[in-house]
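Late entry, evening session. Most of the bench is empty. Finally got around to the prediction I had been postponing all week. Sequence below, unchanged from the version circulated by S.P.
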Amino acid sequence: MKRKILAVVLAAAMATTCLTACGSGKSEGKKGSSDETYTVTMAYVGDKKEDTERIEKKINEIMKKDINMEIDLEPISWGAYAETMKLILSGGEKMDIVPILVDQANSMVNAKQVIDLSEYLDKYGKNINALLGDTAKAANIGGYVYGVTTGREWFCQSSAIMRKDILEECQIDPSTIKTYQDLTDVFAKVKEKYPDMTMMASNNSTTPDTKYEMVDTLTDGFGVLMNQGQETTVENYYATDEYREFVETMYDWQQKGYLSKDAATTTEGVENQVKAGAAFSYFAPNKPGYDIRAELLCGTEMAIAPLSEPWAGTAQISFLTYGISSSCTDKDKAMQCLDYMYGNKDVLNLLNWGEEGVDYEVKDEENNIIGYPEGKDDTNTYHLAEGWQLFNQFEMYIWEGDSPDIWKETKVMNESALKSKAFGFTYDSTGVTNELAALSNVKAQYAAALGSGSVNPDEVLPKFLEELEKAGIDKVIQTKQEQLDKWLAENEK
């Protein structure tokens, strides 16, 4: 019987003493014979669409014919991800393919809740290896390949996204903006004409510091590599001159009214703030096609001013990967299914866009452009639009409005992006679990307030640094440095 994730969450809420599942968390079930149709249970991160079962049925018609397998789709909402995955993996719930966010990888690997994919990739990973090449095994801890990344942009390019009409009105050329400091003069001119408008949008989950990404965070940010990962000495970012200068600038912006007073607490999305006419700009990572996306989200043309060259650290490529649960009853079949998903265009388009003629129609067959059928929109169609996390976005149709060359351009930037010296390195945090928990609490208390200019860094930053030291950041830094040095030597970096 199909076991839905909702049952797991409800069971937890009702304080059920244990989670039940076939095999009770042990691989006791018999592997399917070659004549049996094996059902692969696959989770992904996202809200469940009303017509998910309809799409699942269509996918299974193709998969059963091609590889004699079917798939049971299990969406997990972003907000419930950590707790739901913990319940599923620790309780032995039937799950084969699982999404792994990088900040959860260590705990999953240490508990052996996901398998090492190294040999499986060598044996079954034809499509994956063709797509990812040397990065197929990048998501590993000490050589333990816990997951496989998806075909998407793997680089970061922090940028200022600004209303184009206002820039033109104020006669400001966005190409002259090279650093975040350059924005101070821009904001001064715009604020003069729009005194009631916030210059930089922010909210409780995306304060400006979180979107200004110039260091390799080495997974958690407690010990980083500066200069886009071009240094090999692990440092406390919060104790650097670069961080101090950034939060001092945010405080200056706050005092001048460029940031809102509730910049660290409001839940309103930054794009919605722009759309409502309340904000002029926001920070976001740029990528091919982002200008179109920004215009759609903000309701007006947006200009993009990159604040760095494209670069990539392990966090970018390993932010979300797919692994195989240790409780999977047939790991070979699960791996064959995972590789199949990376290579089948029909399945990928069904999963992301839905059915042709029902949820979308082809607008330009030569350029693979699709759009809504007449009278349809996202309210009455299956429209997941999460291609970046669904295995291989490069094999999917392109939604109308995006450039026909968007996937080609993204691949070029993936290849040309500056790579961190630690690209492919993920440290084992087993020995500093308690410190990381304490550090996360300290960061939650101080970082957003400092990063949004809500507090005076002269008064608050010393307290933040003191609390970080008490929480054990030096031990985490030492742990990372020792493992990184060993990894660099082994990989001759």
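Two things to note before I forget:
The CA atoms of residues 359 and 381 lie 5 Å apart.
The radius of gyration is 24 Å.
Will write this up properly tomorrow.
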